[in-house]
Specification:
By secondary structure, the protein is an alpha/beta fold. It has a single domain, classed as Ribokinase (UDP-N-acetylmuramoyl-L-alanine:D-glutamate ligase). The chain is 35% helix and 23% strand. A hairpin with a 4-residue loop joins strand 12 and strand 13. The longest helix is centred in the last third of the chain and has 16 residues. Bound molecules: alpha-D-ribofuranose. Alpha-D-ribofuranose binds next to strand 2, helix 1, strand 6, strand 7 and helix 8.
């Protein structure tokens, strides 16, 4: 299949304001740690993926909800400034926008608490109003910070129109809707894969031996990202491994979001799954080498430069 010029991606997902706090180490339960810095930056897994895909050169339509607070104005302006189509984002009255407290320690490891706010109110109405965009675009990309039934509903609409659906199952659900994983591709990280499978996924060997089980839960294809160990993919026929790119981790907060966006963009451009995973891995590595969520999302040029150097 020949490659297309410009990917068209729909993202259904969360839009948060991130309160990012950096400290030497993450607090243990019951512990108090004095932090170094605090900044407010736009985040949310959905919005992060939308911004990342736009920086990779895609036309991006975002579907979601913000509240009617001052964060909502900032979040919408930021998405517009990144070139994302925000016409299908609803401002919910008397509602707070989603907020995340993102704690990052020196090693780059993080812990995140999310108050969903307006993200929890994304409804079938938002999806119905954006039906044309979902059906006209190449790929529907989703995560799990909006209600599961909405993910299932949007999946059905896209699938009926022959549009591929990628689900980044983050955060990992404690329980999930029977149809949640009936998508074309899922891309959990190792802890999300372990949660879905009910088994530990600690090494590349674990991921290689368990990845086909993930597709038995519904998706046609699967990728497990293993952080600094690399990634494992199953395209429905063969299992392959991709080594991680060597980088200095500064903040891994939105690395998975950059990865998911990279996959969506390259698959929409008709790249093979293995090519898409290589591109996505470079995007995820670059995101982890910068601070913040959307602030760390790489451009297409940065990703291609990193890949050329390998
Ligand atoms: O994936 C990172 C994101 O998770 C953060 O931006 C935060 O908002 C949470 O949604």
């Amino acid at each position: 299949m020949t490659e297309k010029q410009r990917a068209k991606i729909t993202v259904v997902g969360s839009i948060n304001m991130d309160l990012m706090i950096r400290a030497s180490n993450l607090p243990l339960p019951g512990e108090t740690v004095i932090a170094d810095t605090k900044v407010e930056n736009p985040g949310g897994k959905g919005a992060n993926q939308a911004v990342a895909a736009a920086r990779m050169g895609a036309d991006v339509t975002m579907i979601g909800c913000v509240g009617d607070d001052s964060f909502a104005t900032q979040l919408l302006q930021n998405l517009k400034g990144e070139g994302v189509d925000t016409s299908h984002i609803t401002r919910r009255e008397n509602t707070a926008s989603g907020v995340a407290v993102v704690m990052v320690e020196e090693s780059g490891e993080n812990a995140i608490l999310v108050v969903p706010g307006a993200n929890g109110l994304v409804s079938q109405q938002e999806i119905d109003r954006a039906r044309q965009a979902i059906c006209d675009n190449d790929i529907l990309l989703m995560q799990l910070e909006v209600p599961q039934e909405i993910v299932v509903y949007a999946t059905q609409i896209a699938s009926e129109a022959g549009v591929s659906v990628i689900l980044d199952p983050a955060p990992a659900p404690l329980e999930y809707h029977a149809d949640l994983l009936n998508v074309d591709l899922i891309c959990p990280n190792q802890s999300e894969a372990a949660a879905l499978l009910g088994k530990p996924v600690e090494s590349m060997d674990d991921a290689v031996s368990l990845i086909k089980e993930l597709t038995q839960l519904g998706p046609k294809q699967a990728i497990i990202t293993m952080g600094e160990q690399g990634a494992v993919l199953f395209d429905g026929e063969t299992v392959q491994t991709i080594p991680a790119l060597p980088i200095q981790v500064v903040d891994s907060t939105a690395s998975g979001d950059a990865f998911a966006a990279g996959l969506a963009v390259r698959l929409a451009e008709n790249a093979s799954l293995i090519e898409a995973v290589k591109f996505a891995s470079a995007a995820g590595a670059l995101a982890a080498s910068g601070a913040g969520a959307q602030t760390a999302m790489p451009t297409r040029e940065e990703i291609e430069t990193l890949l050329e150097r390998q």
